[in-house]
Amino acid sequence: MKRKVCVVVTARPSYSRVKTALQAIRQDPDLELQLVVAASALLERYGGMLRTIEQDGFDIAARVYMVVEGENLAAMPKTTGLGLIELATVFDNLKPDVVITIADRFETLATAVAASYMNIPVAHIQGGEVTGSIDEKVRHAVTKLSDLHFASTQMAAQRIIRMGEDPASVFVTGCPSIDLAAEVLKAPALDFDIFERYGGVGERLDYSNGYIIVMQHPVTTAYEQARHQVTETLHSVRDLEIPALWFWPNVDAGSDGTSKGIRVFRELEKPKNIHFFRNMVPEDFLRVLYGSQCIVGNSSVGIRECSFLGVPTVNIGDRQVGRERGPNVIDVDHDRTAIRQAIQRQLDHGKYAQDTTYGDGCAGSRIADLLKHQELHIEKRLTY
Fold first, then answer.
1. Same structural domain, 50 and 89
2. pLDDT tier at 135 (50, 70, 90 boundaries)?
3. Digit-coded pLDDT (tens) for 115-128
4. Claim to verify: residue 54 and residue 105 sit in the same structural domain
5. What does the alpha-carbon distance between residue 247 and residue 112 come to, in Å, rounded to a whole number?
């Protein structure tokens, strides 16, 4: 019988971080893919990934609407609790042999708890990494709830083992998002008009002579500062007068502050060099990213995919503190002058050499192969 693999995608970045694994699972005759789309991945205002997933030809086994409105601290545990209830029903209906959860968002905790209490083995992608904010706690909690570990880096794998996980259950696969980046590098040309394909809000910019990307999310442990923090970045980017493609924040606590900061700045300052987007399909986004002169903000894409693509990164604040990074990253505080100066340094530097810390482009096939051949179990014993 085919081994049933249930993958839960809960957010915009989660899809790109698992897409090549989904493709490899779907193509394997010994595996059956059960794709569950949940949380903000279903919501249009956070990118509308559902349409992209369907256009990529994936059948969706279940949809879980679980996001509680508010974008504040109380909304996150309530969303997690609602997800726990709904996902338990989904798993009871689908009866998977193994459940895959991705990275460190609060919704992944609901996935891991529901599956664990239903005696379903859990496989975790991107465990063992170190960052700031609440993500640090969630990621390691999910690690302890998981039975198979697909680490992106050697250092992450060693951390998982030091947490007491059986070394025989820990595998360095690389990150599937690097697979997409590797494919994009084979045909990196930006062969479409960004504004015609994705619309967005703001001036129609001439980006033929260079542009930058901005992605800044709220920091959940400092959510009340979100509006001030994004305003500092907005001023620095506006003052540089370089065309900037700015992407909307995620659903974390403080997102309303970040969004309001953007809207107020847009209305009052009327920046001529910034255009705002909600989302792009992963491959298009990576081509736009590769063609940029620099990415600014606090998204992990600046550290993960950009290290492989060699794109200069200005990382703001401590949302990514402790994460392994290549030489392409400059870290700065939430200060408009420091941000502007760091962007200028990266513009002067240009592209960096490729760094393969997070993978070599074969993670998806490795994960599918491990899911097919590894013995599945739910009993755990500490190894230290």
1. yes
2. confident
3. 999 999 999 999 99
4. yes
5. 29
| Residue of 279, 287, 281 whose CA lies nearest to 183 | 287
Residue 287 in tokens = 């081509």
Is 105 in the same domain as 164? yes
Residues 96 and 33 occupy one common structural domain: yes
Q: 183 vs 49, 151, 194, 298, CA distance in Å?
A: 20, 21, 20, 24
Highest mean pLDDT among 74-78, 134-138, 217-221, 303-307: 303-307
* Mean pLDDT, residues 211-217: 97
What is the model's pTM? 0.93
- Domain of residue 165: give its range: 3-174+362-373
Same structural domain, 131 and 221: no
Query: 328 near 352, Cβ under 8 Å?
Result: yes
Each residue of 284-320: pLDDT tens digit? 999 999 999 999 999 999 999 999 999 999 999 999 9
| Block residue for tokens 């369907």 | 54
- 147: which 2 tokens? 């039975």
3-state secondary structure the chain: CCEEEEEEECCHHHHHCCHHHHHHHHHCCCEEEEEEEEHHHHCHHHCCHHHHHHHCCCCEEEEECCCCCCCCCCHHHHHHHHHHHHHHHHHHHHCCCEEEEECCCHHHHHHHHHHHHCCCCEEEECCCCCCCCCHHHHHHHHHHHCCEEEECCHHHHHHHHHCCCCHHHEEECCCHHHHHHHHHHHCCCCCCCHHHHHCCEECCCCCCCCCEEEECCCCHHHHHHHHHHHHHHHHHHHHHCCCEEEECCCCCCCHHHHHHHHHHHHHHHCCCCEEEECCCCHHHHHHHHHHCCEEEECCHHHCCHHHHHCCCEEEECCCCCCCCCCCCEEEECCCHHHHHHHHHHHHHHCCCCCCCCCCCCCHHHHHHHHHHHCCCCCCCCCCC
**Size of the chain in residues:** 384
Residues 19 and 104 in one domain: yes
